[in-house]
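re the bet — no i am not wrong, look at it urself. input seq straight from the record:
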Amino acid sequence: MALESRQALAHAFSHGRPALVTYLVAGFPDRATSIASIRAAATAGADLIELGVPYADPLADGPVIVDAANVARSAEGGFGLAETLALAAELTADEAMPPLALMTYLNPMLRYGLPRLAADAAAAGIGGFIVPDLPPDNRMTGTWLAAAEPLGIDTVFLATPTSTPERLRTVAEASAGFIYVVSSVGVTGERGDLPPELADLVERVRHERVDGPPIAVGFGVSTPEQAASVARIADGVIVGSAIVKRQRDPGKVAAFVTLLAEAVHGA
């Protein structure tokens, strides 16, 4: 069954201004607190929730997110892909919740089973997937898209500073929902300064995108000031580690996301 329009990732970019994408780790520091923090981010102005699935080998994640995922995985009963799907279903039952995208990795997807995962994700109201180790030319990509696309589930691919024009074109053509532009080489995490060549990278992606999906920038965006500067050059801003640092306290999440939303929406 296709997702409702309010759950589709494109809805996050339909408000006539830059979108704020907030990343939080499912199940951290425990299930109840993670739900409270996700809801706090939504209420404070997040246009899209990127929900991180705890995983043992997160190649794209920096220390803040890795530590949070380890806490969630080691909690009583553990927290992984199945538990994240159940949590997402609870969240999307609230019609005020913005679209949800899962950030996960290929190995847990394969263990779960791609057709089954697509069906269960659609049933949970998940609008899309971000899978750093599933590029457009991976041999499993076609299998996943064949299962996910008929159910209205978007797959977001990553464009990096080292991508060639041909690669950027492939990413832009394959992405649905939005194109994830990685601001700098390396793993996620807070940075004092964003790369000076970021605007050029976004323009390169925009050149190859033609009539493709919106462009959102993540990796290293840590402050409202940085978020505002990114919002002036892109369609969306993704903030992760700086929010996860506050995720133990939903009140701190709400206060910080409020500042981010003001910065991004007013850019």
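see?? The domain at 9-265 is CATH 3.20.20.70 (TIM Barrel). told u. also Strands lie at 19-25, 48-52, 100-103, 128-130, 154-156, 158-159, 179-182, 215-218, 236-239. so pay up
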